[in-house]
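Succinate dehydrogenase [ubiquinone] iron-sulfur subunit, mitochondrial structure dump, as promised
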Amino acid sequence: MWKSSSGLRLISTLKLIRCASTAAESAPRLKTFSIYRWNPDKPGEKPTMQNYQVDLNDCGPMVLDALIKIKNEQDPTLTFRRSCREGICGSCAMNIGGRNHLACIWEIDKDVSKTTKIYPLPHMYVIKDLIPDMNNFYAQYRFIEPYLKKKNVTEEDMGKKTYYQSVEDRAKLDGLYECILCACCSTSCPSYWWNGDKYLGPAVLLQAYRWLIDSRDDYTYERLAEFQNKWSLYRCHTIMNCTETCPKAYN
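structure tokens r here:
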């Protein structure tokens, strides 16, 4: 079939563009990650930042993908928590680029000229590398007794009865019960940094409110009495870092 010279030039140009695009895709896009490292087996050594390079052409889009790739292919000693990879369990909470996030749902910055720095959640004791000690956080959660409490119920009857509530009362719990206890909010809060041993922090206070307004619970006033002190709600200074870092966008 006859082709005009202009048509041939167009085909040639398209081939060149396609070849250039393929070459660009195959060229390595090396992204540098600077990761906090500390080994409890060497307590005399100070924490350090260790650099790793990952080819973004051969890596998933999320920060957790890069961490898993580094651990599997470069450094098996790199330690971090992870589980669901879907933003549900809260295990992979860490500080990425100066802000608390879940590594599994936070996208890698594609600008390869910039180094992404990764630290454990701030102002918590570090167990190893990117793993914070969550014991104090969980102890505070236990303090609020995060479960349904009923009066005039014998031990034999516990767990044998279903307690119903209206559709309207159930709707009041939306935006509260879904908290995954990742601690991104609490560890971004300056009030929690200053008084983490006393101040319950935003995550636990959110959960406390969840049980306070549950229409099925019989201990509303007793629960309220536990918070009539300066170390609970009134220690919040409305800095609002918590709402900025919450992966579920709760307030």
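Residues 28-132 form a domain with the Ubiquitin-like (UB roll) fold (CATH 3.10.20.30).
lmk if u need the other ones
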